[in-house]
From TrEMBL:
Residues 18-109 form the GST N-terminal domain. It holds the Pfam family GST_N_2. The lineage of its organism: Eukaryota, Fungi, Fungi incertae sedis, Mucoromycota, Mortierellomycotina. Signal peptide: none annotated. InterPro entries: Glutathione-S-Trfase_C_sf (IPR036282), Glutathione_S-Trfase_N (IPR004045), GST_UstS-like_C (IPR054416), Thioredoxin-like_sf (IPR036249). This is GST N-terminal domain-containing protein. Gene3D superfamilies: 1.20.1050.10, Glutaredoxin.
Length: 279
């Protein structure tokens, strides 16, 4: 791995503040994708932790437009945000952050975030997602962009297994839960809890979905990544969601899930640990 980029000391990364200790509870999948990418490229940066109820205010104050909208057309303000003070460039979408890092620092860290590969995973599901998905224009990284969209849709379809266990900061927990309740149009936080037979059915759906995804990882079994021993942003996309699972699923369910399909996703999670430092 190369030395940290000397031109990137002023990188500022905005992530969502969770319950202390934040280093072990931060669980937003999109911020995790960006944090893994920053560490993959060995870019020097510092983190600013934003309480969940303050995200919209902070994003607007920074002048970073919302990159997603709710079904009713209102803006969905979320994180991460990356600011490169060397260029005064502000990026408010995890995929755009990865593209920026690869474009600006192509030779830093562990190499190319976007090596050529076929990422033919598709997940089609007609559902109203609590968290809106980003819509992207065509670009040179379309294969990765489509993969990102389908992976987000697939995991978001099963996020109710995790939502009730999000480790909110006690200081802002009630306001955070109230915002989730408002977005989902439910009556109380207890409505997010999935129990009993319904939970078992959703877990089985999750396992089957991951079985479709695992087919891509079986094309090259020389290492834990989609390209064997070479990690790419596609691995970080899945890894961001695995980080959320690790932080939010009950411990016994996380151990169960990481063992599905011969433990492929558990090995992926563990192999990305070297890029998971929280700075």
């Amino acid at each position: 791995m190369s030395a940290p980029s000397k031109t990137s000391g002023a990188m500022i990364f905005y992530d969502i503040a969770m319950r202390p200790p934040i280093a072990s509870t931060c669980c937003g999948p999109n911020p995790w994708k960006s944090r893994l990418a920053l560490n993959f490229k060995n870019i020097a940066y510092s983190s600013i932790w934003v309480p969940f109820p303050n995200i919209a205010q902070v994003r607007c104050a920074l002048g970073v437009d919302a990159c997603r909208k709710f079904g009713d057309g209102t803006n969905f303000y979320t994180l991460p945000i990356l600011i490169d003070s060397n260029t005064n460039f502000k990026i408010g979408d995890s995929f755009d952050i990865a593209v920026y890092l690869q474009t600006k620092y192509p030779n830093s860290g562990s190499g190319n975030l976007f090596p050529p590969q076929k990422l033919d995973f598709v997940f089609n599901h007609d559902l109203a997602l609590l968290v809106p998905l980003s819509e992207r224009k065509e670009s040179e990284h379309d294969e990765y962009s489509r993969f990102n969209t389908y992976v987000d849709a697939a995991f978001s379809a099963h996020v109710s297994l995790m939502a009730h266990y999000i480790p909110f900061d006690p200081v802002t927990a009630e306001a955070s839960k109230a915002e989730f309740i408002r977005r989902a149009g439910v009556k109380s936080w207890d409505d997010f809890e999935v129990k009993g037979e319904k939970r078992e059915k959703l877990k089985e759906s999750f396992r089957l979905m991951l079985g479709d995804l695992v087919k891509l990882f079986l094309r090259d079994t020389s290492g834990p990544f989609l390209l064997g021993e070479q990690a790419s942003y596609a691995d970080l996309i899945v890894g961001g969601w695995l980080r959320m699972m690790h932080a939010t699923l009950p411990e016994n369910e996380w151990e169960e899930a990481r063992g599905w399909h011969g433990g492929i996703f558990g090995r992926l999670h563990d192999s990305l640990e070297k890029y998971a430092e929280v700075k």
